């Protein structure tokens, strides 16, 4: 944790450029996916990695000449236009062949990726040793953007509202941010239901640590961890991946429950975990359940996870919801009457993400039309969200009804089977889940056998397209919707 070495500025600048480009790139990828569809995207575009920008030209890398030529021929112009729209200073895209070392495109991670083959077991890398880049460069305050996701600037301790349900988790997070690797607090295990602030607290720890000193922080979801790991096996760079991970001061892994059933990745995580803790580095993990309730994780991992500090975040109380709404309304600069805040806090009790989403919509509406926020306007603008909350259709109910209707097995809603006979009803159930509940794409994905949110987005779009093309199919879906609504 030393710093101030020669070359620091250049490294810091390069890192800053990398993380800014990564943000632009992830937006471009979302657009590309929407334009060309998931399958095309995964076949041709997901392997692109972003290189440097020089003057008005950005370099993008592809792993083989064939892919490079294909992408250049089919998508070269579109890539150029999308980059220019994102970053007007970029006018040209240069496609080159290179082994990927930069951050791959979001979703580079096959959603239903085959776990690592036995021949490439995590602890027996077949690859030749690759020099660990991270340990060679001067250590500095950095988010390891080469390795992990950028931190969300909104998620700080200052913007986290503390109340009874989360005060213990908040205090533990603060303590870790102030004194990482303290005995009794390593690992810090945060758990609780969806949308209650686990990710927010993890990012806040990261932001605070970066503010305070020369420390390298890597935050990533467990899902990303797995895909990075699989990617490293495929590209025969597991040793490099391990070295990168083990060179950070603080490793934060979000939504650990994703690793349930992914034995090879669990194994790798376990070894990384031990190596880091033994070297006095801090680990922070979040999950939807406590370590002891995470059945499906290996016992030795659950035991180690529970060895430090375990802190839960409980469901919100009315008081906490009001405090959060007040703070967010005040930060927006739009006047939201107390009775509207109370109405929202009464109606939307599921989690903070939904509460925040509803308030944001009201604020956006007020800004757009320049009208004051009133209770009547709230009921009107949020009628779909409020209806979903009144009706309380669950995703499980939707899955059951859809499976019955198409005469498929309920388990196929969660299975990895992809044949059209099972995939289509699954997509319809995803579509109805999006329409009839206020769940987010990632939450829906989790309910469908831990699928990626992009799979859900693709499924929803597919059903919309089919409904537009095929009136009989549209009628079927509408019928199901009506049955579920009543
Ligand atoms: N106490 C809080 N104060 C302010 N904002 C909060 C609080 N709790 C949650 N939020 C906000 O709610 C949203 C969802 O929180 P977050 O993503 O941290 O949830 P999570 O527990 O990680 O959910 P998931 O299990 O889905 O990953 C974020 O925008 C976050 O800023």
From TrEMBL:
**Where is ATP bound in this sequence?**
195, 197-199
Stretches the record annotates as Domain I, interacts with DnaA modulators: 1-127
Keyword set, alphabetical order: ATP-binding, Cytoplasm, DNA replication, DNA-binding, Lipid-binding, Nucleotide-binding
User: Compositional bias (Low complexity) spans?
Assistant: 108-134
Report residue spans for region: Domain III, AAA+ region. Answer: 150-366
- Name one process (GO BP) from the record: regulation of DNA replication
Spell out the GO cellular component terms annotated for this protein, sorted alphabetically and separated by semicolons.
cytoplasm; plasma membrane
The protein's matches in Gene3D superfamilies, at most eight in alphabetical order, are given as: 1.10.1750.10, 1.10.8.60, 3.30.300.180, P-loop containing nucleotide triphosphate hydrolases
| PROSITE patterns per record | DNAA
Its subcellular locations are:
Cytoplasm
Q: Name one GO molecular function term.
A: DNA replication origin binding
| Start and end residues of each Chromosomal replication initiator DnaA C-terminal domain | 394-463
Q: Which family does it belong to?
A: Belongs to the DnaA family.
Summarizing the function annotation, the protein's role is: Plays an essential role in the initiation and regulation of chromosomal replication. ATP-DnaA binds to the origin of replication (oriC) to initiate formation of the DNA replication initiation complex once per cell cycle. Binds the DnaA box (a 9 base pair repeat at the origin) and separates the double-stranded (ds)DNA. Forms a right-handed helical filament on oriC DNA; dsDNA binds to the exterior of the filament while single-stranded (ss)DNA is stabiized in the filament's interior.
Q: Which NCBIfam families match?
A: DnaA
Q: How does it assemble?
A: Oligomerizes as a right-handed, spiral filament on DNA at oriC.
What's the protein name? Chromosomal replication initiator protein DnaA
